[in-house]
Amino acid sequence: MNLIDESNSGAKSSKKIFALGGIAVVILVIIIIVLLSYSSILNKNKLSLTVNLKKYSTSYLLPKDDVIYIGIEDLTKMLGDGYTYVSGSRTSESDNQCYVTNGNESTFFVVGSNSFYKVLEADNQRAYYDLEKPIIKENGKFYMPISATKTAFNTSFEKNNNSYVITSIGTIEGAYNQEESKTFFPDPSIVWDTSYRNKILLKNGLVIVKGPRDELGVAKLSQTTDKKKKTVTVSTENVIDPKYKSITYVEKYSYLIVEADGKKGIVKLVEEDGNFKVNTVINPQYDDIFPITDKLFLITRIEISEASNKKEEVKKYGIVKSSDRQEDDIVLPTEYDQIGVKMSDFPDNDLTNAYILYDNMIPVKKNNLWGFTNLKGSVIISLQYDDLGYSENKNPNSNVLIIPEEEAIVVKKNGYYGMISKTNRTLIKNTLSKVYRDVVDGKTTYTMVYGEHGEQSRDVLKYFNDVVNKKNNSNDGSTNSSSDNNDKKEEDSSNENNTDSNTNKNTNENDTKSAENENKDSSKEEDE
User: Fold this and answer.
1) Which helix (H) or strand (E) holds 220?
2) Which is it for strands 184-185 and 231-244: parallel, antiparallel or unpaired?
3) Are residues 111 and 96 in contact, defined by beta-carbon separation less than 8 angstroms?
4) What would be the CATH architecture of the domain defined by 48-166?
């Protein structure tokens, strides 16, 4: 009995130990799973930064307001690629501005702004881009949302959880644009010798390619590595078959200006899940074309003039709007000598678009006279001005076209400058000999010069506050406050009559203008 009892007792003990061991194993497995899951979560939430194939400390990143920021100057140094960081603006020192440049393109940032803008040095056109969050400044350093890197610095940008990989187009080109060797096989159809505009395509994994008859197209770029043979092969897959004489990429709208049979049109690149397709926006039918918004396009018609027994090319400009119909909508016929202003004449005048002022005014010139139409092509200010803006200052950054604070436009007529509103009110009559802007202690000021010999000057914004705005508010019926169409017609008629006056007009008119302005000065001083 005792032996049997002892045997049963031993068996029960063994079973108990086995059961406990099994439970311990299960608990251990659960702990391992929990630890692995926790580790996975930690790794997933752990920040990682790689720039141009090199890992960097995440101390360069700044998590704030549910957004990851990166230092602008820090990223400039990491990327290299010819980029230089500059504090301030191009025209003045500023604690709240900076820009980066690589000689082909410059990108400008302002603290607190929800956007930044880029300037291609080749044409000085600005392109504005929205930001996920505003530019900030922490501990004396400028930061931008890391999501803006692709556009602001022309890089490829990959985000996987909290891992960020940034690669410059120079580094991308360096990886693909190599001479053929035993271990590297390039794609001979790729056109590497192209404009900087077109090289920007690299950040989207695209390149310009050439066909057998030198026609151009666009292709997706890829690279295959054979680990056994230790070889790299570059290949392309056509997005646009080579069929065009020329291609120019316009990044702002993802448009391509394409040329076929001597005529130009617009196609749009559309990305869907990493794949690209192409939509025709404007069929090739114009001598030249350029997008001024996502829907409006400046078109050019080239005529041959035989003036003075000499054949010359004369360019006429118009504007079209893309349409679903066979023919595009004509907004402005190609009969204008110029549409838009030269941004280079007013480089620091807060112009966002060379072709559109105050969101709805298109400057147009015909028969040596300037006026404005709206975006639908209707004339809103008749063609009556000799020029737009004052652009004769030695420093072009001092030139003035618009006074944004008052929504005013500087115009020239009969040799003198004045200012009108965007609703065609005469704000300051054409009595000024000069207008210039300056930046004092970070604040923009405007000065107008007048008098028979240009001996008087006045702060424009103070003049608006002390004289113009008071007159407008008082509704005194003068031409300075009238926006009525009948008053405008009478004013135009008056100006025409003045133009036809006798030869003594200029002297008398200048004397009158000088006296009038002196009276205004005196009135202002009394008000003050």
Assistant:
1) strand 216-226
2) parallel
3) yes
4) 2-Layer Sandwich (3.30)
First to last CA, the chain: 124
Q: Tokens at residue 68, please? A: 């990851």
Closest C-alpha among 139, 178, 171 to residue 153 = 171
Residues 139-184: pLDDT tens digits?
999 999 999 999 999 999 999 988 999 999 999 999 999 999 999 9
Domains in the chain: boundaries = 48-166, 177-297+321-329, 387-528
Extract the runs of DSSP E, i.e. beta strands, from 139-188.
141-145, 155-160, 163-168, 184-185
Q: What percent of the chain has pLDDT over 90?
A: 66
3-state secondary structure of 345: helix
Cα dist from 66 to 62, 160, 462, whole Å: 10, 16, 43
Task: From 92, 93, 128, select the one nearest 107 (Cα to Cα).
Answer: 128
Kindly report, residue by residue over 296-315, the tens digit of the pLDDT. Answer: 999 999 988 776 667 788 99
- Are 159 and 148 within 8 A, CB to CB? no
Q: How far is the C-alpha of 189 from the C-alpha of 222, rounded, in Å?
A: 13
How many other CB atoms are found less than 10 A from the CB of residue 48? 15
> Burial, 392: exposed, middle or buried (Cβ in 10 Å; 0-12, 13-18, 19+)?
middle
Question: Strand ranges (DSSP E) for 407-464?
Answer: 408-413, 416-421, 426-440, 443-450, 456-459
Q: How many CB atoms are closer than 10 A to CB 60?
A: 19
Give, as one character, the DSSP assignment of residue 17: H
User: b or e along 93-108 (b: 16 or more beta carbons within 10 Å of the residue's beta carbon)?
Assistant: eeebbbbbbbeebbbb
